[in-house]
Amino acid sequence: MTYTVAFIGTGPDPKNPSTDGFAMAYRHAPGYQRLDDCELVACADVVPENAQAFARIHDIPPGHVYTDYEEMLSEIRPDIVSICTPPAIHADLVIGTARSGVVQAIHCEKPMALTWGDAREMARVCEEEGVQLTINHQKRFGNPVRQAKTLIDRGTVGDVERLEFSAETLYDMGTHFFDICNYLNDGSPVEWVLANIDYTEENVLFGTHNENQAIAQWRYANGVSGLASTGRAADFVGCQLRVVGAEGVIELGADEAELRYRADGSDWTVVDTGLDTVHKPMPGRVRSGLSTVASKLPTTLSARVTDRLSTTSYEERAIEELVTALEAGTESELSADNALAAEELIFASWESARRRGRVDLPLDIEDNPLESMVEAGDLLV
């Protein structure tokens, strides 16, 4: 079976020097293109020039370019839709797409939604409509994270006692690391969150507020604890990710994303993660040069050569996994349930700051506590 794929929100061409933002559709597209059972058939963006440029680059017919996503869904009836817009409109687009009655799967960019209520509603509607909803927490597919999990499962550092991470923010980037911590701890539910934040300077990323600094603690039902530090306090943890076990420590370095571990007081052992860092594969100069040459070849040949010269991106791995899950009728690692578990920790951290106390889960709010505090003037800006 061949799955037809459409995009909502292309963004501007990322090779254009004036581009503002990541234009994640350009990262999703190669993930589908490298799969034999996927075909890119349409795209929609409220800026016609953006949609047209995306279509030209990815060989989408001119007649399949839209500014109205509902019209695109009605006329093209794609099997899979990638939603690559800012998070504030994810909920409306995911719910509208799921209720169109034409799609089998939706792959949405992170963070999941602007509010906790919207995130849960997205998941509820997709389940009701029988649509597979996945959120692009692609960093869990990087070799540093996968090999850290292997070390844990082997008992290299004994029973896990604490997970720690540092990130720019709890929301825009922290969503990845909350997801990774949950993955490393086998999806154990979280019992409570205690956090505080600083927001003395406006910090808006992709249309949404993010704290300047945060310290967050949480406790899993299996007894493992969590610690996160962001923004101005990101160096508090001292590395990107740390797993503290009863018999040792695993660390993912902040700079080169070096994965290392030590057990029973021994010296550090560095783990070879290939080309992978915490953020993306980093091919060496030779491969990069050959890839540049390959890009000048005819489109079909170039794609095959480039795929063999460079390791797959994390987005490509994520998309292959979700398509495989769709084919098999199994739950994807990027499922709405897993995404909700990460999102809940973000909103619970901000809610803890709002309440000035510990928050027990499940979270019983509908809004975005940080946005609400900013709008109410409860934080200094």
Fold and architecture overview:
By secondary structure, the protein is α/β, with parallel strands linked by helices. It has 2 domains: 3-138, NAD(P)-binding Rossmann-like Domain (Rossmann fold); 142-277 and 338-376, Dihydrodipicolinate Reductase, domain 2 (2-Layer Sandwich), CATH 3.30.360.10. Helix content is 36%, strand content 22%. It has a 9-stranded mixed sheet with strand order 16-15-14-13-7-12-11-8-17.
Strand and helix layout:
Elements: E1 3-8, H1 25-33, E2 38-44, H2 48-57, E3 65-66, H3 69-76, E4 80-83, H4 90-98, E5 105-108, H5 116-129, E6 132-135, H6 143-154, E7 160-167, H7 174-184, E8 190-198, E9 204-205, E10 208-209, E11 213-220, E12 225-231, E13 241-245, E14 248-252, E15 259-263, E16 269-271, H8 285-294, H9 299-309, H10 314-328, H11 336-355, E17 359-360, H12 369-376
Parallel strand pairs: 1-2, 1-4, 2-3, 4-5, 5-6, 7-12
Antiparallel strand pairs: 7-13, 8-11, 8-17, 9-10, 11-12, 13-14, 14-15, 15-16
Helix pairs in contact: 1-10, 4-5, 5-11, 7-11, 8-9
Domain GFO/IDH/MocA-like oxidoreductase: 168-251
Protein name: Glucose-fructose oxidoreductase
Domain Gfo/Idh/MocA-like oxidoreductase N-terminal: 24-137
